Amino acid sequence: MKKQLSPRSILFSPIGDTDPIRNCYDGACLHIVRHYKPDMAILFYTEDMKLKQHQDQRYTRALQNLHMDIQIEEIFTDITEPHLYDSFIHILPAKIYELHDKFPDAEILLNLSSGTPQMKTVMAIISVDAPWCKGIQVPTPVNSSNRDNPATKDHEDVDALLQNNLDDEKDAVNRCVEPPLRILRYYADKHRILALIARYDYQAAFQLAKANKDMPPMAVKLLEHAAYRFRLMPKKAREVLSQYKSILLAPFRGAKERLLEYFLVMQIECHRKELHHILLESTPFLYELLQEYTRINLQMDVKKLCDCRKNDTYYLSRKNLELREPNLLSYLDSIYLNKMHQKYKDSDLSFLLLKHISQYAAQAGYTKDMQIYQNFMAELDKLENIPGLRNNTAHTIRLDLDETEFHTRIKISSMDFIHTLYHLLCLLYGAKELNSQRGIYDSINRWVKDELEK
Predict the structure, then answer these.
(1) Can you say whether residue 279 is alpha, beta or left, with left for phi > 0 and alpha for psi between -120 and 50 degrees?
(2) How many alpha carbons fall within 13 Å on the CB side of residue 23?
(3) How far apart are CA 137 and CA 115, in angstroms?
(4) pLDDT digit string (tens) for 257-309?
(5) Which of 404-408's residues contact partners 24+ apart within 8 Å by CB, and which partners?
(6) Which of 123, 186, 204, 316 could be joined to 214 by an S-S link, Cβ 3.0–4.6 Å?
(7) CA distances in angstroms from 453 to 167, 204, 206, listed in the order given
(8) 308: left (phi over 0), alpha (psi -120 to 50) or beta
(9) What structural domains and CATH numbers belong to the chain?
(10) Per residue in 350-365, is it b (16+ CB within 10 Å) or e — as a string?
(11) CA 215, 221, 226, 227: dihedral to nearest 10 degrees?
């Protein structure tokens, strides 16, 4: 085959008895070349067709007579029983996919009318599954079976056949038809997508939808939005789609958004029984939640008592406490002496330290709303057995954690655990605002389904 760096279109054609010409009309391979003018043609021969080609090069001569500049590659095989799938099933499809690997930007035209019925079936399946393929059928001139018209005989003069080809006439009809096989792929992909989003696997669903040109654009956008969002990239998700039918998809910003989005992912992991994930993720979630609580409900700025390290982590130093909050330092000293038999020393800001500060603030009159404080602490007490909050057993979490062991470790069920986290969020931000977003992924699933049904 002559080398061509970037063919725009390539015809892949098994060669059959109707090629190159039958009953004074183009066979399917020649007719596709006539009307689609591909840059390249790949001819696939069985043993029988190979012998005919070697006899007088009838197939390549016919193509070059019509399209002088076409590049031709020939695939010769020893297939003697092309009516049996086993004889070609490992060869023919592989050649098509190899062609796509070699020329990924080219459109591959598949001749669905030459070769045995078994070959045509396999080619049709490939044209359904591969978006870079286009299946083409060529009906007979009388739009009926070709059985009554004899195949080209081995001894016939190919040049004479070409000279008497009625498809060369100016008023000859283009018999090429592109059967709507893509609709089969659409329905197959649709059901795969619905199965994927039922498991909240948005990245896989989006990739599948994006590769299908027939997918409704809004369904693709919803899936892309959800894929970014589930990966905790809400800004990217908003850039793709900020609202759906006047419904704001991600209305919050800042810490409120981070905490809610993080919670929504944990909620899905709970539904999928990925319990080891939600335990590992609960520690950073609760740490930032306590930071938000102190910012919203305390009359003291905790971060102003801290110093910042080069890696942007905060630590609470004795020196700052001595200068600005000596009573808080005394409170911490009493706790640390009781539990660790030593006074408080410089420590990174943590969930446990923020909880101690919140308790001190309530006693010292620095709490804005005592009811929120009491409710907040009551909910936190339900989570005191979470590994990692006290920096001791986080590394022992097993990856095969089931509901029974979860309950044994945490003393509540995984669903109660998720409800507790959500209640904590509601205490800070209000249930009315958050409720509109708690079921957002299920809403997206319904919307995607609706778009796919249109």
Answers:
(1) alpha
(2) 12
(3) 12
(4) 999 999 999 999 999 999 988 888 898 999 999 999 999 999 999 988 998 88
(5) 406/275, 406/279
(6) 186
(7) 43, 20, 17
(8) beta
(9) 9-179 (3.40.50.10770), 183-259 (no CATH), 269-435 (no CATH)
(10) bbbbbbbbbebbbeee
(11) 70
Tokens coding 429: 């931000």
Tokens of 177: 């038809």
| Model confidence, pTM | 0.76
| Angstrom distance (rounded) from CA 224 to CA 262 | 18
* Encoded tokens for 126: 């490939």
Token pair 């689609």 in the structure block, residue = 36
